[in-house]
Fold each of these.
Amino acid sequence: MVREIVRKTALNAVHRQMGAKMVEFNGWDMPVEYPSAIGCGIVAEHMAVRTGVGIFDVSHMGDIRLAGREALAAVQHISMNDASRLAIGQAQYSALLYPQGTFVDDVIVHRLGEDEYLLVINAGTREKDFSWVRDNTRQFDCQVEHLSDDFTQIAIQGPKGVDVLQKLTDADLSAVKFYWVTRGTVCGLKNILMGRTGYTAEDGFEIYIPPDEETSARVWREILEAGKEYGCVPCGLGARNTLRLEGCLSLYGHEISDTINVWEAGLDRFCKMEKPDFIGHAALEKTKAEGVKKTLVGLEMVDRGIARDGYKVLDESGREIGYVTSGSPAPFLKKNIALAYLPPGQAAVGNTVKVEIRGQGVKAQVVPTPFYKRPKKTAKSE
Amino acid sequence: MPYPTDRKYTKEHEWITADGTMGITDHAQESLGDIVFVELPKVGTEITAGKPFGTVESVKAVSDLFAPVSGTVTTLNDALATAPEQVNKDAHAAWMVKIKVKDPAEMNALLSAADYDKFVSEEAGH
């Protein structure tokens, strides 16, 4: 008998205690937002991350470790970015591809040691990703381990994230650049991995701590306490989604999937075709030459209405030309925005289209992406 | 929070007063989260008991408004077009539409404040 089991992170009881609204997400019981009574709610959580700091339980994310003499060759074979460029302690955004150049998943590849890599993968694709990586790296002298249940992962995001974490660790975080990792003592726990990464289009860190409930709850509370002076709030999946959408970061099953290829998704800059070979390379060469039939664009609603995931996009005459992959009000930008697939001929910035909302075509315009880019730090504050 | 006893409630989480003023309940605003958009019918629209007549959107969700009773829309709360967050601040004051109730007897089928309160706590217990 197959039984649907909803999984819980080690922080589940803490979320419930804090009054979080819980939802099922990719088989996980996760907080979508915390109550307004403690200064939360999607908009407040979103704003905290843009202007101060917020923390997220992202323990549902998965982790795969590849280690051994041929670990680099294995990573190079299964991922589209060039992992040979990574120094020890450096990370890169990448993706695992099917032979046809579509997505198994998007990942962050961390180089932890001379021959050691950690792939951080999506919650909904954990098992699929692990099988894929294991099955496609058998020819290499390299061990593949599924470490998804070995960590509680907490993201500390926002311009003040570094200041909050710095209060709790002996590691010098000012020396850690964006998309680099370090190790240090955090809340008394030794040798904790800290990556200057995230999914909010903001500065911040993601830390990997032991997965037992007691330690997880203690660290969560200590971060919130340390963050008090910066207005730190707990954040749920609702704000995580609006933050990543403002920053145009892809979400598996929306902007990327097993039917969408790299060129369509506009992730060219993370796909290194000059690498001699990787799974998907041949098909991508072919599809690049042929040209794409659809391309991902940013839309901003011109008239009143909110585009939502799956809504149809129409041309000015009302003909269906594409679809919305993610759409929402953008709390920081205070606009209604969406990502959508459109034919290249309709994708020029400034082009006017309509989004079908409850049977009505509502005017929208193609705008430059990302919708939000975090302000560059001045040399002084760096 | 206590539900005002000067009005009736539906299992779809709307409230309506005897004079036909309608809105959504505090429980509804709480479960929707930050409300960003309220779409209402035009004045003069006939609405039918149990059928959707408008939409409320939060950052995360789209939710239909269901008519507690049948009637004709006479007035809209225009303030909600620019300040939909008023519904989060005080759902029982931030009315949405006023209607001319077609058959006052339909009101008898709706829930009292006490019944609605019980319904909501039972729903939460599941």
Note: The mean pLDDT of chain B is 95.
Amino acid sequence: MRRKILTSLAALMFAPLAMAQGVTKDEILIGAFGPTTGPAAYIGLGGRDGMQMAIKEINAAGGINGRKLRVIFEDDGHSPTKALGAVKKLIDQDKVFMVFCAAGSNATVGAIDYIKEQKRIMYVSFASAPAVTWPFNRYLFRGSTTEVPRYGELYSEYIADGLKAKKVAIMNGREEYPKNEGNALASQLKDGYGVDVVARAEFNIGDKDFTPQLLDIRKAAPDVIAFFGNPAEASIALRQAREFGLKQQFFVGATMVDANFINVAKANAEGASGFALIPFLPGNKNPDLVKWEGAWKAEYPNLPAGRPNVFDIMAYTDMHLLAHAMKAAGPELNTDSLIASLEKVRNYSSSPLASPITFTDKHHVGNLSLHIMQVKNGAWEPLPWKPSRPSVILKRYE
Amino acid sequence: MTASVLLQLLVSGLSVGSIYAIVALALVIPFKASGILNFGQGEIVTVGAYTALVLVGFGMSYWLVLPLTVVIGLLAGIVIERGFIRPIMAAPEFTLVIATFAVGLILKSAIRLYWQDNPFALETPLNADPIHFAGVVLNPLYLWVVLCTLLLVVFLAYFFKYNRLGKSMRAVSQSHDAARLMGIGVERVLMISWGMSAAIGALAGILLAPIVGINPEMGHLVLKALVAAVIGGFTSLPGAFFGGIALGLVETYSGAFFGSTMKNIIPFVLLVVFLLIRPYGLFGKPPVVRI
Amino acid sequence: MSGQSGRAALWWLTGLALIVAPFALGTYHAYLVNLALINIILAIGLNLLTGNSGQISLCHSSFMAIGAYGFTLLNNLYHWPVPFAVVAAVLLASIGGYAVGYPARRLSGIYLALATLAFLALTQVVIEEFPDLTGGIRGLKIEAMNWFGLPIDHKYLVYFLLLGCTALGVYAAKQIMDNRLGRAFDAIRTSPQGAQALGIPVAEIKLTAFVISAAYAGLAGALLSMVVGFIDPVEFGVSAAIRYITFIVIGGMGSVAGSIAGAVALTGLPEALRPVKEYSDLVYAALLLLSLLFMPNGLVGLASALRRKP
């Protein structure tokens, strides 16, 4: 009997000291990965710098229940092979507490199995790969970026209800993402709103000429032209469209709702509309954003045009949300307590720059809001339109 | 398919083809002189475009930026040849392939470090309103590209036929030893041929920039230029020109008639067909092998 | 200690270290060892083709892709047991090697390089044109593998299969190089006309070289899918193909030791460059160029030059 009491006492005494990996009494170590080299570097660099700026602020304000945050950011070169190496290094060598994923979809999916095996939390900020949130896994969370089907839901609602278009032409690149955007829009328009897709044209990523596609579209005389591809192609297509006398409004896919698009398309971008993941894009005159950009530029004075970009903002707001959840988890911070704390987050925006995030114990789909914007006077301005149809995405988690 | 659509496609095809032609010329010149295929040529085009971006950013007029970019390209080519190619000229072919690729990668990474992957546009006086003519829309930029290509080809033809340096380059491309025996400074000629090739590549960059936008991956078109050079014949300058134009036209028309998949595949199918049936292209000559 | 027994001791020690590795190393270092072994297999095959028989191939990443996608699809769709799927992947890649080697046997130099480049471009297109099958640009995940229901931890099974294949690959390459086929390769590289004059069927041997080296690449590809668990077409594009050529150029062309040296060094290098963050591409390319300038015969050449110095 005595032995039992002594053992239990010992267990009670020592338990709190057996802290989670990556959590010490002064520090929480977070691992992060994303592309900082190669063509997708703007994603990873935005992620890294946005994250670190948030961490600096959090630590300056006293940290998290007396602990300072520290991040180790690894490059994944946009490759699943390298991403897996990065995550293994972070968890196995650096012994991080959790992983913040600032990577593209393929690299993210490459790391998922290992994360699940290691039972560490991975918070995904940018990648939209379905495998992160479906099937449900308690260790994976998706933050600022939204689910792929949501794009189709909102695009079709805006074009049919918002723009009141009756005839739509869709032009998309033949790669997966633009093709999926195009297909999702086409089927939703037809099934959900009875809107006619009068022309479908495809092009190859990297194409420099869209004459045949645009001439076909001109013949079909649509009300709105939807374009899914990259800013570089959009700028050429828009210019050529105007040359061929096409005056319709352009609706563009998510990758073009960005300052880069306006930089290359210049005057031809005017009037184009599209959805953004965050309420205000870099460059907008909103006072909170202007203040934030000022602080960012003070932190990173020598970076080129085009930064900060959306990834800076998304990583920044996501990091603040994580910090908020960590604080609420209390001094006994470990994987389970953080998961429990995150799952209590309801419509939380860490700042006016963030979309509201919700996690429950049934789903970890953080953000379902997209914000419609239009190019006015050379900048993306939010429009007052709001969707009224509820999303069906969360139904499958019930 | 109306006549005006066909004409419209002709204009696009010719301008796309002109770009391929210029880059193909930039590939063929050092190949003829030194037997080396420069896999970093695409990045030299990119450097040309970014050079133009920087110079325009200083407020210089386009008409000054254009020749300046070409001169900078020339110097860059000379530096590359002297610094990196000359020391390894005697190495096996594969080493040279990797070396040119490495030079290209260094250029691309350096560009990416400063400008990242933000696309930029180049303002030129030719970004004007399109001209409408015979039911066809003519973009002045495209016309300018075609014009520059023609001028370049005429210049090169004259240069290689009548100019002394040009003639020495021809001699060197036939045989280094014979040229040496004729008193031609082979090393100097090689240096200049790389310089010329880079100058032409830089020209392609500044011409391409306002049409497609400036980004670090612009150099990808070197693959298409390679196909053009094979079609025309790697040992023939007029061949490179015709190969480029032909490829541009075939691509544009097949894209319009057969869809985008075809447009993607056709250049490489052509490449394979030519390599199997006529590897020396339409105008090239097989090398004379001395037993 | 004489050089001979010293070298034998080195082999034994390396072998022992490799066998103990998965139990002794953490997951990160074990992962690196896995990648190095895969790269060794690839490099050996490429070296036989390029270093020995003198044929440049810019599409080796495509043969790897055939092996990788072949294995993954047989595994995901038909649940073939791993050894059978691997063998099938190797055969598929060999067929790819034949498909390229046959028309290419009359080509050489840059024309051969371009032909292989065309094959690379075409395989990329095929992967991206059939996304329902290959996952296209979204990539493809390797589902649970069929190991005949063996109760051993999957990661050890993968490692020892990989180790076994590497040993086999090294042994086979040495056998080829030390015998008639290897000598034929060398003859063709040195002088195709001379080889012809000696009665060597040049075209046939060139084709054989392609098929063998594609088989190695296919094996490496299948093993890569097993180790990483996820593949996408970018892994098998032009940059990858050039990267593989750097293994043999840096290591030393024409020798198995060169392939091993280059593969190990260049697997470790990107990881070692992690601290330089976004400069790592630039540093990698610069190191590459510098070693081409100052080490034209690769690491192996450097080693023997150092050994010759008194």
Note: Chain C has a mean pLDDT of 89.
